[in-house]
Amino acid sequence: MADAAVQPIAGPSKSNWLPAKSWQHFVAGGVGGMCGAIVTSPFDVVKTRLQSSLFREKHTTLSIAGNGTLTVPHRTGLLYNFVETGHILRDIYREESPRALFKGLGPTLVGVIPARSINFFAYGNGKHVIANKFNHGEENTWVHLTAAACAGVVTGTATNPIWVVKTRLQLEADGKHSSRSSLSPDSSTTARARIAKSTNSWDMIQKIMREEGVRGFYKGLSASYLGVTEGTIQWTLYERLKKLTANTEGKGGAMEWVGMIGSAGTAKCVASLITYPHEVIRTRLRQPLVDGKMKYTGLVQTLRLVIAEEGTKSLYGGLSAHLMRVIPNAAVMFFIYEAVLRWRFDWPSDAAANGSWTLSIILSVTLNLKVSCIVSNTSTMDSNTFFLNFHRLPDRSRSHQAEDLANYPHCSFDADGQELLIPHSLDVLDVLYCSSRTTVYSAVAVCYPDGHGTVNELVLKLTSEQKALVEAGNYDAHVALQGKVIPRLYGVLFGEREEGEDLGCLVLERFGSCLKQPFHELPSIDKAKILDKLAEAHHNGLHHLDFEEPNILVQDGEYRITDLGHVTVHEWTCGWSYKFADHIGEDEYRRPEQDGWGCEIIRREAAGIGFWNDYRIQLLPRFYVPKSDDLPSQEETNRMNTDIGIGVGTKYLREDRQDLAIRYYNHVKTLLQTGHSLEELVPLRSHIAYKIHVQWHAEKNLPFSTLLPWER
Ligand SMILES: [Zn+2]
């Protein structure tokens, strides 16, 4: 390689390799790498989605600290992957936007472009140098092999620090958010992007430098050199296959390009199959210290440990998904590389102009490929700033969360990286609920000309960032219940208080309003609807720990359970099978045929809100007595409800009022049994109560006076 480094500086020689021209490989490689990454980006997005949805189904935990990989157990099978991937791509494109397929592209390009530029530069020039120096200017397999190996070593050494920083940032982000939420370690759509932001690359570089020194940046370098094997196989095989296809079809035709793309794909596939395990080992070696100790110290030690702990199979985990990404990537990358190389440039002799040339080539190539729209969109995609406009909020005496925001009443917020339902701006209209730590606002989405013209009503819940993340994680873990049992969650926003503290904001579907009546006053049919929602939540593993009236939303006789701040995982599979709606008005306290009810929690809640009112009867608020022949039915009791404890100057104890209530309703029952109709009695309620009071006071020798008219 010493020769390779010296040769270009020595100036033009008898070979056709000129210093200026060598940059073609650099530029072509960079552009090729970039295009490859753009094409592969949707597959990366799908990979993330697959992992998180898989997580939701299986409720397994992501074990990052344990083994250092970020891989969630994959469903194996190439066919399954293809079908699933196709569906997800289609859904993301239709339901979100084409842009959503290119999330996270920016950071990828930062790593990919330098790596590819260096690799193609080193290989493309290296093979000429080696051929000229050692093989009389002729290229053969041996020359390709040596050049590819040298290029691999150069690339590995130069780019290892970039990968170390990137891997650390990812590990840190995933490690952090796995500890955030009790229900959902992978609240993939809400937590990740935000937390990843909390440590930036520069902080990470300083941290590695401080804690581990320069050597920290070269962790896993030996494994990177192992990766040289893959690059070498790939390059050598590519050159070989390219020559074969070019020879059969003649130069320059369309078939040559097809052959080239096929060669690139095939070479990558073969090379991946042979060397895939090194990816696994490389990730392990870059893992940060666990409990202050390094678990994976060297190449051989790591290989042994992984095989011993997880079996040989783990070295090929996720291979099919990997191939689905790297093969199209390689095909596009080599195609672009070759295309750029064959582009007839008039290279300016002035080296200083190289920079602008590089840029103009990148632009013209991307324009020609009609991917320019995607590239330009990445900038708007990354600026996830939202605005909450509070200026229409009516004046309120009580202070609320938003008032602490740094730029209230026009607050900018960061979105968490996911596409929210509505772009850019929300108008906050009212305060629905307000406590010292949480405020719930109603808001509408500001309509945009390119929108559908509908006004979307939303609910914003402002609380601490930590709480917002936990609650969002709980919503995420129960996607299946969203819009049916619990409101839909559209996303999470993050703002800053004036004092610099963080504030989080859940953006939720607006659904009716909180239940104002106590449960026990609801008609049985409504109790049944609410309890059936509760059972549905249980079947989905959601155990709501605050099942109370303010957390029940009602809209047109439909119900939702809200506030997932205080929930837990249902400890066992819920065995509740009784459908409340099918048992309205049943008069017997009937147990299902099976042993028990299947879930004691639901049984208790149902009894608590008085769904089965057949074995007891409510005479006063919070006063129930066993049903008997001496008392009217609950329906009749409700109709005959009147004031009890009407004596002026008498202090009635709780027991006194209960005694009076029993006497009153006993008398009502007697009247009903002696031929009086309920319709007759309802207007006489106060009068009957009056007579009962007079009798009671006489028995107790207590004076009685009342404001009711009958006394006079
Ligand atoms: Zn249950």
TrEMBL record:
Keyword presence, Repeat: yes
GO cellular-component term (any): mitochondrial inner membrane
Return the Pfam families for the record.
Mito_carr
Solcar repeat spans:
20-129, 139-244, 255-343
Q: Which is one GO molecular function term here? A: pyrimidine nucleotide transmembrane transporter activity
Q: Which GO terms describe its biological process?
A: pyrimidine nucleotide import into mitochondrion
Q: What keywords would UniProt list here?
A: Membrane, Mitochondrion, Mitochondrion inner membrane, Repeat, Transmembrane, Transmembrane helix, Transport
Q: Does the keyword Mitochondrion apply?
A: yes
| Gene3D superfamilies (alphabetical) | Mitochondrial carrier domain, Transferase(Phosphotransferase) domain 1
Where would you find this protein in the cell?
A: Mitochondrion inner membrane
From what superkingdom does this record's organism come? Eukaryota
Membrane topology per the entry is:
Multi-pass membrane protein
Q: What is this protein called?
A: Protein kinase domain-containing protein
Taxonomy of origin reads:
Eukaryota, Fungi, Dikarya, Basidiomycota, Agaricomycotina
